[in-house]
Amino acid sequence: MINKQMNFLDKPWHVQALIFGLVALMLCAGFWYFVTRDTRAKTAQLKEQIDTLQQANAKAQVASQRINDFRAAHSRVQADFDELVTLLPEQRELTNVLQGIQDRARGHLSVRRFSPKEDFQENFYSGKPIEVEVSGTYNKLGTFFAQMAAYQRLVSISDFSILKTSDQKGGRTVEGQFLLTAYYVSSEKLQEAAAAPAAAPAGKGEKAKPAAAAKKAID
After folding, report:
1. Which CATH architecture describes the domain 89-184?
2. Measured distance CA(172)–CA(141) in Å, rounded
3. Phi and psi at residue 155, in whole multiples of 5°?
4. 158: CB partners within 8 A, 6+ apart
5. In the chain, what are the domain boundaries?
6. Per-residue pLDDT at 217 exceeds 70
7. N or C: fewer beta carbons within 10 Å in the chain?
8. What is the Cα–Cα distance from 174 to 149, expressed in whole angstroms?
């Protein structure tokens, strides 16, 4: 042992420094490995938990966005449905609608005929055709047509003809004949449409608005 110590001391100083450095490095490495082993294991476990939570959070954000998209789509469909219900009265309201149209006609014109015909059924809505014959001035007839175009319910005028009247009493100058159709929705169809917004899927592409689709189909 003494000889080994003497041999070590006999070595050049830079060799002794190198040996001391290697020994210190080994001691530090051993200390780091054994002392920090538990800490490193816990750190790795925490990192794994953080990664898992981050993935779950990302999925939750996607799900939250989809829920928001669904709510927005539902609101749009509900608004379209409300607009459609406003434009298309229920069958039980049709009598009031027809009375309102007749009152408007009588307010400007002399109504000679107001004859409802048999109803017809389309995919969602129904129609009540009415043969109308009126007389009055050209301007008042135009005013009535303008009122029907701006009417809060869906109505259409077709097959119309305007002729010069032979009886010009009371300032009447023209006679008008046309087919006026008032549109409405049955209670069964209304219930089906009411169930549609709740079942509407969220999506990027917007479907045609029902109110606009009904207007287009009627036009």
Report:
1. 2-Layer Sandwich (3.30)
2. 10
3. -135, 155
4. 178, 179, 181
5. 2-35, 89-184
6. no
7. N
8. 20
pTM above 0.90, yes or no: no
**Residue type, position 133, single letter:** E
Look at residue 131 in the predicted model and tell me its pLDDT.
94
pLDDT tens-digit map of 99-131: 888 888 888 888 889 999 999 988 778 889 999
Q: How far apart are CA 89 and CA 150, in angstroms?
A: 16
- Give first-to-last CA distance, the chain, whole Å: 113
Closest residue by Cα to residue 211 from 84, 73, 82, 85 = 84
The total number of residues shown for the chain amounts to 219
Among all chains, which residue has been given the structure tokens 């009535």?
144
Contacts by residues 192-195 (CB-CB < 8 Å, ≥ 24 positions apart): 193/81, 193/84, 193/85, 193/124, 194/81
Contact 178, 161 (CB under 8 A): yes
pLDDT number for residue 129: 93
Query: CA-CA distance, 171 to 174, in Å (whole number)?
Result: 10
- The answer to whether residues 136 and 110 touch, using CB atoms and an 8 Å cutoff, is yes
Q: Which two tokens stand for residue 16?
A: 């002794």
Q: What is the structure's pLDDT at 177?
A: 93
- Pair of tokens at residue 138: 């050209």
